[in-house]
Amino acid sequence: MMKYLIFLVILICSQQSVAQQNDSLFISNIYKEALSNGECYDHLRILCKEVGHRIAGSAAADSAILWGISTLKRYNLDSVYTMPVEVPHWVRGSKEVGYYTYSNNKVELEIVALGGSVGSERAITANVIEVKSIAELRLLDSAMVAGKIVFFNKAMDPMLINTGAAYGGAYDIRSQGPSEAAKKGAVGCLIRSLTLADDKYAHTGATNYDDNVRKIPAAALSSVDSRELSRLLKENPRLQFTLHLTCQNFPRKIQANVIGEIRGSEFPEKVIVVGGHLDSWDVGEGAHDDGTGVTQSIEVLRILLALGYKPRHTIRAVLYMNEEFGNDGGKTYARVVAEKNEEHIAAIESDGGGLTPLGFNVQGDEKDLLQLREWGKLLEPYQLYSFRQGWSGVDIGPLKTDSNVLYGLSVDSQRYFDFHHSNNDIFENVNKREHILGAAAMTALIYMIDQK
What we know:
Layout: H1 2-37, H2 40-51, H3 59-73, E1 79-91, E2 96-102, E3 105-108, E4 111-113, E5 124-131, H4 134-139, H5 142-145, E6 149-152, H6 163-170, H7 172-175, H8 177-183, E7 188-192, E8 218-221, H9 223-235, E9 240-245, E10 248-262, E11 267-277, H10 287-306, E12 313-320, H11 328-340, E13 343-349, E14 357-363, H12 366-379, E15 386-389, E16 405-411, H13 416-419, H14 432-451
Parallel strand pairs: 5-6, 6-7, 7-8, 11-12, 11-13, 13-16, 14-15
Antiparallel strand pairs: 1-10, 2-3, 2-9, 4-8, 5-9, 10-12, 14-16
Helix pairs in contact: 1-14, 2-10, 10-14
């Protein structure tokens, strides 16, 4: 009996060793295919240079949808289709004017309206009151704020190595600041851009107005201009700023998620999703945010097909519409999945930019983390070492269930907020090799999930 047990243990270990060798070889082939024949960087160039920025609701977003359909159809997938999504329609307008007068000199600044901001018929000229936080503003008497432009000069914390945490720590001045300023009687709002860079780029992003408060125009200043404005306000507290935005909000409209899939050979009813968001802000080219995630997700399907791989489960790439203005694409996809009673076993997202991949975050329980770390051993030769519990992504967040595990591609984010939501987010600022390595890493993870 003991000899039989020993033989059984040896047989099982031998089978596991062979399986690991097969997995290692296939992952090696994934990386070879990606690095020698990768197409995601060229797709990104076309998306950025021929479609350009593509804010939800715009004609450019319509063009991006057509680009997504055409690109996916190139690979003769089992199916390519669209899913209608209702999205907001906000237009920046032709005027974004911001300047102050100092010592009889007019100094114009590069400003960018916050997404969703209202405009005004004429320019607003008012004194400026500077605060460091919403908490500080709330302590002020309304008489000190009424009729003024509130300037939130709150920087992202440079001491935090996790730049996402630094962003989260300053995010409230953009999302809530304009409404909090209006509650005190302000006529306009300026915020310091959410970036760790010390430059002249202004960074946009959505603001969320309180429906019970008057809406006031709101814009972002660059970090350099914010520092200079703060200095001048100390010298002259009565300095006046002129702000003129011509933004407009229009009725919501229908656009679409774009979906392509390879049907599973054994469990076609069980789905593994990979995706990024097709929309971007209407500044820059939406390269890192999130053209890289979209093109990496398409590349996952291309690599698997190029290697002749027949997935056991259905592998589906989803190009979500409107992450930036409320995640309508992600919410709609999750709702349709629930209505159809589809079973998803995993969802992966890339929305941290096309920077050097470090590993993956997992939104799951301890068992899921242990499994990810076990897979991570096969990814260490490709310099992927970070496998931990953490945030996966906005688009796939609504898909979380007890049986569906969410993964987010983790990248070196130290430079990400240099580009984020600004005119600096262009194709030229994406490194080809880093971008391709991210796509290869996502393909490898999907392969291991499919083989489980």
